[in-house]
Amino acid sequence: MVYIMEIYTDGGCRGNGRPGAIGAAAAVVVKRNGKSTSWTRSLPRYPPPTNQRAEITAICLALELALEKFDQLDTNPQFDVTIYSDSKYAIGCMTTWIYKWARNGWFNAAGNQIANRDLIQEASDLDDRLDEVGNVKYVWIPREKNEVADRLCNEDMDDQ
User: Boundaries of each RNase H type-1 domain copy (predicted)?
Assistant: First the structure.
């Protein structure tokens, strides 16, 4: 049996990278019947939130939710998880660059330590765990296809 999950993610930041910045991440699980369940997470104040940190945090949140769902199931189905993001950075991190960075000791082609290494490594570890029970696919979508997750991020930041 295959258990399918589709998760839409988004991250946002106000005051990107500056002192006093606020950020949030959201993940929206869309069920087969069209209904959805959503979660948000406020970013910590340190390191200062950025849009990129928010987008990777959203990926981590989605991976955590998928693993949590797998642990709740009575059976051990093959998991098929698709994570959607409107961030080309987040999708690139999870599909291409992460493998090169890991091989290069977390340095980029210019020899600089990669930004957001802590979150990217966390996402990589969660991805590895999910790969043990199924497949994870990362898909870029245009912003207008991600309105619910975007709205949830903004609501979270409004409440901070």
Answer: 1-158
Q: Is the pTM higher than 0.90?
A: yes
Round to whole Å and give the CA distance between 69 and 54: 22
Instruction: Find the CATH number of the domain harbouring 33.
Output: 3.30.420.10
pLDDT tens digits along 88-144? 999 999 999 998 999 999 998 899 999 999 999 999 999 999 999 999 999 999 999
Q: By residue range, what is the domain housing residue 22? A: 2-159
Please state the domain count of the chain.
1
Contact 105, 154 (CB under 8 A): no
For residue 16, give both structure tokens: 């990107």
Angle between helices 147-158 and 51-72 (to 10 degrees): 110
Identify the helix (H) or strand (E) that includes residue 26: strand 22-30
Can you state the angle between helices 51-72 and 117-131, rounded to 10 degrees?
20
